[in-house]
Write a structure and sequence with these properties.
With 293 residues, the protein is of the alpha/beta class. The protein has 2 domains: 20-56, no CATH class; 64-272, 3-Layer(aba) Sandwich (Rossmann fold). The chain is built from 7 helices and 11 strands. A 9-stranded mixed β-sheet has the order 2-1-3-4-11-10-9-6-7, sandwiched between helices. A hairpin with a 2-residue loop joins β10 (230-239) and β11. α3 crosses α7 (259-272). The longest helix has 18 residues, at 39-56.
């Protein structure tokens, strides 16, 4: 829309603002003609300025819808599920549907309605078809988050080698439960940029790295308090068309309750979904809050 700008003419008597109907008298009296901006034009300009302000505001985004799959032994999943989903939702614009058990994976389209799948499981076996569906869903491009025992899961399944490839790292055992210090491997990764160089957990299981896929991108590591070996505890990978974020941390609430770990999961989820900027901040519309560490 083009707006014609009218030349302003100063009247002979600056205290007298004449309406349009007085213009003939202006000519007869020798006074300069006055062009008056009507109330309608004023309203139009105000309305347009309001629309420009609305256009400059960030558009509201639909929350990421995440399927949180949890089950198995050895961990307090009943406490972790509500705690983690609630706290991650306070950091990013996301909602979670918690599904206990693997039965839902029997449908090849189990994740169709979701933006990402979050696995926090510790089952030693599962039917081949369920694991195939989970892996194929990621291959087709569904973002995936894997936490803790999901990396050790399904060790008695014929599909274990394929699952380890899906994870991007192979691990079978862990150090005894205890405190340790986590260190950055990649200083510039947007996922871990917010973290200090070193941070501590009061207690967790340090999963021992047997092998890591050369294409996996290492983010965090821990020097074993037991034997001094270095183990990777957080990384990313690409599985087919899907992004995968993994961490072996999070055995119980001692690590889960730390702000560093909660923000790590939140950033990992955003990265997997392509909603994390290179500077470590969420894409517009996907930030709920930020944790100061």
């Amino acid at each position: 829309m083009k707006i014609k700008l009218l030349k302003r003419v100063r009247p002979a008597n600056p205290d007298l603002l004449l309406p349009g109907w007085a213009s003939r008298r202006n000519r007869n009296s020798g006074r300069p003609r006055v062009t008056v901006i009507t109330s309608a034009l004023t309203f139009l300009l105000l309305a347009m300025s309001g629309s420009f302000a609305a256009d400059s505001a960030p558009a509201a985004q639909r929350p990421l819808k995440v399927l949180y799959v949890t089950c198995g032994g050895y961990h307090d999943y009943a406490a972790q599920a509500p705690y983690l989903t609630t706290n991650i939702s306070q950091l990013v614009n996301a909602t979670f549907d918690v599904k206990v058990g693997l039965e839902g994976l029997s449908d090849p389209r189990f994740a169709e309605a979701y933006d990402a799948v979050f696995y926090n499981v510790c089952e030693e076996k599962a039917p081949d078809q369920l694991l195939d569906n989970a892996m194929q869903t990621a291959r087709n491009g569904k973002p995936t988050v894997m936490m803790h025992c999901s990396i050790h899961a399904f060790r008695n399944s014929p599909k274990i080698k394929e699952w380890e490839t899906f994870c991007g790292l192979r691990s079978k055992v862990h150090d005894p439960y205890g405190p340790f210090t986590i260190s950055k491997v990649d200083q510039s990764s947007p996922i871990t940029k917010f973290l200090p160089q070193d941070w501590k957990t009061a207690g967790d299981e340090l999963y021992q790295t047997i092998a890591i896929d050369p294409q996996s991108h290492q983010l965090l590591r821990v020097k074993s308090p037991v034997d001094g070996r270095q183990h990777i505890v957080c990384w990313t990978s690409q599985f087919g068309q899907g992004r995968v974020f993994c961490t072996t941390l999070g055995h119980d609430m001692k690590t889960c309750a730390t702000p560093e770990f909660r923000q790590l999961l939140a950033n990992g989820l955003l990265w997997a979904c392509g909603k994390l900027g290179p500077d470590g901040t969420p894409a517009a519309g996907y930030s709920a809050a930020r944790t100061r560490l």
